[in-house]
Amino acid sequence: MEIPRKAIRAERGGSNPLGELDSYLHQHIFGQERAIESIIRALNRGRYRFAAGRNDRPIAVLLFLGPTGVGKSETAKRLASYLHPEGGGFLKIDCSLFSHGHEISALVGAPPAFVGREQRPLFDPEIIENPNSVILFDEVEKASTEFRHLMLQVMEEGEVTLLNGGQRVVFRESVIIMTTNAGAREMGDYIQGRRLGFSSRREATESMGASIFNIGFSALQKAFTPEWLNRIDEMVAFRPLSFETLVQILDHMLSEANQRYEECGVRVHVTSDAKELMLHKGFAPEFGARPLRARLMKEIEAPLADLLASGGIPKGSEIWVDATGEPEFGKELAFYYLRDEGLLQLAEQRQTEEGVDQPLEAMEVAAGGNGSNIPQILDQGTDD
To answer: Are residues 92 and 181 in the same domain?
Structure first.
């Protein structure tokens, strides 16, 4: 076949129909630029129903692999929240609950004369057939062989039939996302072998992407048949998180947490030294960002709650958290505050308008006092 002489060589245009989604994911998922690029590419292909002639398949079938705590499940949730901000378009299946063959009846219902036939199957057509629904199968490697056969039908034919009534559930309008921790132990060993530590920068973790993918894919080949793996449209590798990325994630958590703090009449700022101390205590590259939320609760929220309950910090205060002390003796976090009546007024306004939950009075009565182990607090006065 000859190309006509007047044919114009195609080049990529400047428009990006999924540009807003791309930006949204980058605002909420940190350190995974290449993973987001792969997701956008797969979804764009799905928009045109380019599936090698199989238009009855789901919009996209994606498999997220990588170390634990790097954003695989969170990415699926954020994608669903963008596509369905009002809710109703997201279904999560915890595959560890389906390690035995008979347990798939919870998905498709029980046949006639079987126990549990009256129970509503998890494969809910009201969610699944909602356009652009996101169906997350978390830790798919833990599922039984029967579960995987069912998934093969979903990926290839785009539909299943419920056994408790014969209703057909169609996945044609769904984005199927599976996450796996297959190879996670080997990935952890590899990360530790590369001496990825507290000071590791983004360039160091970015360069590890190909190796992480190879480790994960090798583990997948041992866990799944070629027939099963070949039904996946895109395998997306999530990379380890650098120190810079962990700071971004911590900042994002603090920004979200401040929405609740402001409802209690305070606003919290954390200095760079305090963030570094928190990350230093909680940094374990093989666990990614997973320990960060627990660290935030232990290092910031538990002391803050004690200070508010004891009157050590009054409502209507701007709060700063800093690291104090000498490294050789061990640093600790200290809380500083300035009164800000505007925050108190804001909290009262929100309570009136939104009915914000307040600390439980019954719990206060049962506690019978202000508690103990109040952290250090340094009052800088009221001067600017």
So the answer is: yes
Bridge partners, residue 134, by sequence:
90, 175
Q: Write down the mean pLDDT value for the chain.
A: 84
Across the range 320-324, mean pLDDT stands at 95
Q: Is the pTM for the entire model greater than 0.85?
A: no
pLDDT at 316 over 90: yes
Residue 376 in contact with residue 335, Cβ under 8 Å?
yes
Please return the burial class of 44, using the count of CB atoms within 10 Å of its CB with bins 0-12, 13-18 and 19+.
middle
Domain limits at 90?
19-240
pLDDT of 52 above 80: no
Asked if 186 and 83 sit in the same domain, the reply is yes
In a domain, 12, yes or no: no
Out of 122-126, 237-241, 262-266, 367-371, which region has the weakest mean confidence (pLDDT)? 367-371
How far, in Å, CA of 169 to CA of 341, rounded?
Answer: 56
Of residues 260, 289, 257, the one with CA closest to residue 270: 257
Higher pLDDT, 269 or 120: 269
Are 170 and 158 in contact, with CB atoms under 8 Å apart? yes
Task: Please report, for the domain that includes residue 157, its CATH number.
Answer: 3.40.50.300
User: What's the DSSP call for residue 92?
Assistant: E
Number of domains in the chain: 2
* 277 in the same domain as 361: yes
For position 365, what pLDDT does the model report?
46
What CATH number is associated with residue 260? Answer: 1.10.8.60
